[in-house]
């Protein structure tokens, strides 16, 4: 695994710029690839006529690996990026040689959570994304996070296309439970969680560790759900400390 590139998939509702603070130190030690999911950042949203599904986004990841001529990679993501990583494991497990899960979970949405995602999608389509930071930030960052982190998150959210946010929300609402998928993922895995993550807390991280055949857990203190924004140094240390030298 030590020679495999690392592909990191971003959270919702932001884009690959969420990795900016970890990109340089990780790239000093390994090949790092940070794509944007369809409809977010500069990635277009294809008109497929199909209901939103992370399986389609997973096929985008596989197509990227094909273009880069990469047979296998260490694949991971934060929050939604973790869900997308699990979707890639469903459609192309042979392309994954290691896993990195940051602040994510294997369980599907409850009916109430899925409905909340659909409601968010409809409102974003109607009103744009300007209201989202105030609504989402309390769940995404620790209570005492630095003001500049909250400002950066606001910028990342409000510059996303509403159509891409809506697509991603509906795709996440439709995702299946991934416990059995992870149980059969017989590759090394790293699970990172913020100590103050209220969306996918330590219990969810422990459930991932218990499900994965070969997992290492790292808990980052005093940070919330978006650990790469709040504690990039901690995320870099966790990944490089786990990645075979």
Observed structural traits:
single chain, 245 residues, alpha/beta, six-stranded parallel sheet, 11 helices, 6 strands
Provide the fold topology:
Blueprint: E1 6-9, H1 20-27, E2 32-33, H2 54-67, E3 73-78, H3 80-91, E4 96-102, H4 111-127, H5 132-140, H6 147-158, H7 162-173, H8 179-183, E5 189-194, H9 202-211, E6 215-220, H10 227-230, H11 232-242
Parallel strand pairs: 1-2, 1-3, 3-4, 4-5, 5-6
Helix pairs in contact: 1-11, 2-3, 4-7, 5-6
Protein described:
The longest helix has 17 residues. α2 packs across α3. A 6-stranded parallel β-sheet has the order 2-1-3-4-5-6, with helices on both faces. The radius of gyration is 16 Å and the shape is globular. β1, α1 and β2 form a beta-alpha-beta unit. By secondary structure, the chain is α/β, with parallel strands linked by helices.
- Give the mean pLDDT: 96
Biggest sheet architecture:
6 strands, parallel
Order of helices and strands: EHEHEHEHHHHHEHEHH
Output the structural class.
Answer: alpha/beta
What's the shape?
A: globular
Record field, number of beta strands: 6
Point out poorly predicted stretches.
none
Count of separate DSSP helical elements: 11
Question: DSSP strand (E) fraction?
Answer: 5-15%
Strand order of the largest sheet: 2-1-3-4-5-6
The portion of residues assigned to helices is: 40-55%
Give the distance, in angstroms, between the N- and C-terminal Cα atoms. 10 Å
Q: Any idea what the radius of gyration is?
A: 16 Å
């Amino acid at each position: 695994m030590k020679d495999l590139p690392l592909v990191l998939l971003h959270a919702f509702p932001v884009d690959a710029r969420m990795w900016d603070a970890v990109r340089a130190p990780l790239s000093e030690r390994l090949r790092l690839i940070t794509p944007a999911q369809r409809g977010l950042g500069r990635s277009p949203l294809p008109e497929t006529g199909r209901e939103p599904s992370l399986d389609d986004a997973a096929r985008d990841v596989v197509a990227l690996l094909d273009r880069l001529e990469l047979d296998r990679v260490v694949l991971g993501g934060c929050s939604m990026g973790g869900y997308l990583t699990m979707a890639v494991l469903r459609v192309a497990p042979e392309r994954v040689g290691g896993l990195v899960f940051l602040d994510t979970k294997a369980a599907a949405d409850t009916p109430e959570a899925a409905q909340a995602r659909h409601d968010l999608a409809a409102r974003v389509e109607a009103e744009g994304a300007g209201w989202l930071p105030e609504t989402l930030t309390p769940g995404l960052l620790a209570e005492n996070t630095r003001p500049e982190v909250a400002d950066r998150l606001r910028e990342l959210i409000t510059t996303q296309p509403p159509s891409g946010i809506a697509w991603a929300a509906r795709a996440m609402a439709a995702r299946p439970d991934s416990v059995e998928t992870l149980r059969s993922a017989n590759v090394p895995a790293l699970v990172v969680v913020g100590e103050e993550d209220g969306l996918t807390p330590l219990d969810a991280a422990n459930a991932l560790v218990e499900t994965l055949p070969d997992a290492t857990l790292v808990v980052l203190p005093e940070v919330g759900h978006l650990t790469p924004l709040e504690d990039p140094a901690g995320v870099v240390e966790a990944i490089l400390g786990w990645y075979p030298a």
